[in-house]
Amino acid sequence: MKSVKQEAKHDPLKVGFILARSFTLSAFALFVDTLRLASDEADKSGRVLADWHVLGSTRHLITSSCGVQVAPTSDFIDPKEFHYIVVVGGLLNADITIDHQTSDYLRKAAAQKIPLIGVCTGTFILARLGLMKAHQTCVSWLHYQAYREQFPENPVRSDRLFNLDRSRGSCAGGSSAADMAAFLVRRHISRDAERNALEVLQIERARSGLDIQPRKPLAIECQDPRLKAVLITMESHIEDVVPTEDLAASVGLSRRQLERLFTEEMKTSPGAVYTRIRMERAKQLVLQTEAPLIEIALEVGFDSASHFARLFRRLFGQSPTELRRAHA
């Protein structure tokens, strides 16, 4: 294993962590362990090339969503001590995720131009503070609709693993936390440090911010990453249907090129796949809610309940009413 000490580009990379109540332990652990393993040779855990603190307004233990508790290691020191401040979120249904002192500290850091990174639902915390308005945000497909509903004016996407937009970063969470941390290691330390960390973590390669989230709407199998991104976009835009031209442009293709890709890999058209995704969502709403059919039709992008019902019968062999009655 090549020495990383000789290739450090700058002063040690310094990261401050803020953990929300009910934070996701895996996302925090993967992020900080990537820094730890990149910071020294082999697996000695020395803080040579990187350093970090868990910041808190008190030294009380912070409970993660799985019940494991983590203790802050520092008070709120000057944000300028850090290259980045990383906010790790967790359960969205938690009543209060951070206290007023923590909110004030994040606003102070933003005012001082310190880059802020939201990991998992940490982006929601930053958005509530008004700190993501002018920045593209990357969230998990699982949280995409909730983010759009809560922050309709904020740009957001759910097809990529992570994103760094000027002084704001965002990450879908899960294993992509290691990818984002590795990206920072490569930027501030070296490629060797990045490789050392990922090898010890048994991660085969560093995925970039352009890699697609591992999500398969309707369990549709496809190999082309552009198709995977389009499928996630379709699933994320059920009510406000995205035109095929815009779907194609989002992955750098023309409409004809996208249609050709769908035909080659899926033996059907983008429109047919999009309709199927919308109707599967409608079927779920029919079975799991008592919403009127017109509301369901509108929610999946149809203006006419009769048109919706006809298409539903053609796809599933019975009308929405019949399906709901049979499963009552």
UniProtKB/TrEMBL annotation:
It comes from the Bacteria. It comes from Rhizobium hainanense. Keywords: DNA-binding, Transcription, Transcription regulation. Residues 228-326 form the HTH araC/xylS-type domain. PANTHER family: HTH-TYPE TRANSCRIPTIONAL ACTIVATOR RHAS-RELATED. The keyword DNA-binding applies. InterPro entries: AraC_XylS_family_regulators, Class_I_gatase-like, DJ-1/PfpI, Homeodomain-like_sf, HTH_AraC, HTH_AraC-typ_CS, Tscrpt_reg_AraC-type_HTH. One of its GO terms (molecular function) is DNA-binding transcription factor activity. The keyword Cell wall biogenesis/degradation does not apply. This is Transcriptional regulator GlxA family, contains an amidase domain and an AraC-type DNA-binding HTH domain. CDD domains: GATase1_AraC_ArgR_like.
